[in-house]
């Protein structure tokens, strides 16, 4: 098996479709007198489902058995052919410039090891980075606060 099953081309196509979706979402907000950039955390929550959908679509072009369920408690993406779960996270820099690479610690603790696809996007959704991490464990994250 290849080290990374997500290619730069896949990421580029998915990002382009996500950009288009963000433009439509922004226009909808504007039509209602709202500014989607006023709360980037909320925008990222809205964009996370399209991230999962578009990367699933790209992975389905190469692998069989790709599932993107989308329900709470379900894996973000399952790639059946290579028996892999992929956890997707969309994040943006905080006003201070810090970037948080978060996870659901309890899920990771239960599963033991997961692959992660982090997308970093700026406030305008104009610049992005896609970071793929293979086989992260709880040791790769800070323990949750008590």
General description of the model:
With 146 residues, the chain is α+β, with helices and mostly antiparallel strands. It has helices spanning 8-31, 40-60, 105-111; strands spanning 66-67, 77-79, 84-91, 114-121, 128-136. Strands 1-2-3-4-5 form a five-stranded mixed beta sheet. The longest helix has 24 residues, at 8-31. It is globular, with a radius of gyration of 16 Å. The chain starts with 7 loop residues before the first helix and ends in a 10-residue tail after the last strand. The model has no long low-confidence stretch (mean pLDDT 92).
Brief summary:
This protein has 3 helices and 5 strands. With 146 residues, the protein is α+β, with helices and mostly antiparallel strands.
Task: Specify the oligomeric state.
Answer: single chain
Residues in helices, as a percent range:
25-40%
Radius of gyration: 16 Å
Number of helices: 3
Task: Write the SSE topology.
Layout: H1 8-31, H2 40-60, E1 66-67, E2 77-79, E3 84-91, H3 105-111, E4 114-121, E5 128-136
Parallel strand pairs: 3-4
Antiparallel strand pairs: 1-2, 2-3, 4-5
